[in-house]
tRNA(M5U54)methyltransferase
Amino acid sequence: MDDSTSSEKTPIPPELFEEITLEIDRLSSSGDGLAFSTEHRLVFVVPFTVPGDTVVAKPYRYAKDGTYYHADFVRVVEPSQDRHDSEVKCGYFAKCAGCQFQMMLPQFQLDHKREVVSKAYLEYVGVDRKLVPEVEPTLASPKNYGYRTKVTPHFDAPPGARQAQRKGNKIFFTEPPPIGFQVKDRRITMDIEDCPLATDAVRVGMKKERKRVIDTIQTFSKGATLLVRENTDRIKDRPEIKEEDFKAPVVSKRDGVWEVKNYETDHKATIKEYIGDYLVTNLANSFFQNNNSILLPFMNYIRERIMPKDPDATKPSYLVDAYCGSGLFTITLSSLFKQSIGIDIDPHSIEFAAKNAKLNNLPDAQTKFMTETASQIFKSIEFPAEETVVVVDPPRKGCDVPFLTQLLKFSPQRIVYVSCNVHTQARDVAILLGGIPNVDAGFGLGGGAYELESLRGCDFFPQTRHVESVAILQRKKPVIERIIDETLDTKGVLTKPADIVK
Ligand SMILES: C[S@@+](CC[C@H](N)C(=O)[O-])C[C@H]1O[C@@H](n2cnc3c(N)ncnc32)[C@H](O)[C@@H]1O
């Protein structure tokens, strides 16, 4: 073995916290810049950078798996042509962990997110390229700022509070602590007065909520997470109504209807959100999509794609909304189906989902909800699988094997898998395409039952690294049907040699 070659490959660790200059090569799926330093023969991860930037960075930690260093971004030496610092709208940018992409144009962010979706399937999970369609251009958010309908600024306990608590004592704040969000890559809270990603009503609420806490800080002996969530009311205009009657930060009128946007800070308050003309209510502290501006185009996209592409395929009449929350998909899609059922593990969400069905005048016989864990869901569903679409929208960790096993055994005609974590989505979709040992989904033991029809990222979180991903799957046709489709024309005339049968 040639020693000189191996020593040339040996990484030379940098001095921690000493400035080094790096050229950023690409973005990771977590939105950080990646640079390979020929001097150190090492990869450095530098947040708040753009491919093509030359930057000064300070390495501060070796990654646990020993393959790269984390470095703090210090300054730009030579900007990339894709860096647009004039686009940055927030004074806390490049310190706060809340967002990473404000210096990139919206289209650059959308293109990056498209690549993240593609790489999750092809590289992270390694799905066979032949089984993955080209990822469609990312669905843009109508609002790039002012879209977040919920923020949760927090503050830490007073210094020494934990030790005091162990001894049965309390320490109260003597002055306000930083109240805001986390410093990027540090467990430190930074004081943040305003967030331009939030809607106007939430920004007003955030300032007032901070003031309330600061004014009464001597009464707090613990840290806390504050909640500020937008609430929307629509009120039909009447001659006696005047704009100033609404004590709300944002009021507008369209087609004879007032839209009043206010905020709630009580975790148990009921929140109203409109998606087009649909009204969805839920508890202020329970899950709901945080970007109201994209929900209508997003739901329109799902509506357009939920039925089979093939005009000869059976049109599904039944919808199962697994992980339904307060019923967003069931409520907005049920008019396309004879019957729909939504399932969620959280009884409060199911209570709201049932209320939401009534608020939207959906007949009981058409729409049902039940509290159940997703891994038990198909035991009580009697819909014919070949006429059913299942919408799957799990938490970030994705689905578990019992759920995927059941889903494969049930084998609905179509699956719409929505996820805020494309990496766990890609892992689960690979199972639906490739199968689970000992599960026969109609194509032999261990065989998968689905084709991935389309894949698209949706930009629910502009300026951040996050992307919502929608994968649409169609159950594969049995082999004999495929041969008939591929060899006979519409009149039943043989158009191709039958050697396809091999
Ligand atoms: C990402 S949210 C989706 C909610 C809803 N589809 C929406 O868009 O508003 C995930 C939902 O999964 C539910 N959930 C988590 N684990 C579950 C499980 N094992 N079975 C059923 N639901 C579960 C949560 O309560 C939450 O409502």
Q: What stands out?
A: The pocket of S-adenosylmethionine is lined by residues 287-289, 323-326, 328-329, 344-346, 349, 373-374, 393-395 (CB under 6 Å). The CA atoms of residues 106 and 390 lie 32 Å apart. Residues 106-125 form the longest helix (20 residues).
